């Protein structure tokens, strides 16, 4: 079968032919119809260290397809399923192949209302966006409670987060480095305001700044998250899920002890099944599928190799679907 594999540490991925995998105990075999390109996939395809822990390995942290064989009662042949993370493309074979195995313990049935291509468009990015929205709502925030800041706005997670939040009734400020070219795109997704990411990118001028955000969904880290925390209102929450600017976080404790701000995280890889199901329920009920289609581009398997450097350079808008049937 065709597959994109990471051949060895620090070597770029290649498109090649490999044997189809066999399902182990508690696993299903999936005929893969779609995958997607996430920031992590781009990094792995270029041979950068950090994510892959065993070689050679099929790349692709998202798998969407149809169950063709199962060793568990939880699924039957013909079920449309999706796996986001759970080690796919990191320590177990991922979705850039015509067949993949997946552990039933992390596998979700694709909701009826969502096509397989749309499930891949959602992928890890959309799933992570849903986790962030759930974290904000579990904190008690409601629409009308104040402005929500979404950083890395034109990226995959940011795009889905804006749409989900706007559909839930929140007023969303999108922070982007591509304000001129993506303003209409971001307001089309539901952002009520678009700001330049440079406003947040420099070292914080003060540990406490004007209180602007009821909540923050941050994929950028570093000074951006530090500034966002310094601007979060009393009792607000910031959800950190990414590190596009850096993994550092140069903050003081003042937002926490003087404004009772909460900093939490979203992790798509190890999310337990009930949380995965909650996130996919939210996506199936709330995400505007027309907006999802507008934020998505479809490529074939071989095109992944050219898309990888573009996603790392922040040049990809929204989501990229990989169509394995092409
Ligand atoms: N925790 C998890 O489970 C999880 C899941 C998915 C992704 N992630 C992480 O989240 C981040 C975003 O993932 P993604 O899939 O959405 O990637 P993506 O589609 O490439 O989006 C990232 C966005 O971040 C912004 N950005 C890029 N470089 C930046 C910089 N130097 N300073 C400030 N902003 C910058 C850009 O948005 P603008 O052009 O709008 O500025 C870019 O589109 C990555 O770090 C990824 O590894 C984590």
Automatic annotation (TrEMBL):
<dbReference type="Pfam" id="PF00107">
    <property type="entry name" value="ADH_zinc_N"/>
</dbReference>
<dbReference type="InterPro" id="IPR011032">
    <property type="entry name" value="GroES-like_sf"/>
</dbReference>
<dbReference type="InterPro" id="IPR014188">
    <property type="entry name" value="Acrylyl-CoA_reductase_AcuI"/>
</dbReference>
<dbReference type="GO" id="GO:0043957">
    <property type="term" value="F:acryloyl-CoA reductase (NADPH) activity"/>
</dbReference>
<dbReference type="InterPro" id="IPR013149">
    <property type="entry name" value="ADH-like_C"/>
</dbReference>
<dbReference type="InterPro" id="IPR036291">
    <property type="entry name" value="NAD(P)-bd_dom_sf"/>
</dbReference>
<dbReference type="InterPro" id="IPR051397">
    <property type="entry name" value="Zn-ADH-like_protein"/>
</dbReference>
<feature type="domain" description="Enoyl reductase (ER)">
    <location>
        <begin position="8"/>
        <end position="322"/>
    </location>
</feature>
<dbReference type="InterPro" id="IPR013154">
    <property type="entry name" value="ADH-like_N"/>
</dbReference>
<dbReference type="InterPro" id="IPR020843">
    <property type="entry name" value="ER"/>
</dbReference>
<dbReference type="Pfam" id="PF08240">
    <property type="entry name" value="ADH_N"/>
</dbReference>
<protein>
    <submittedName>
        <fullName>Oxidoreductase</fullName>
    </submittedName>
</protein>
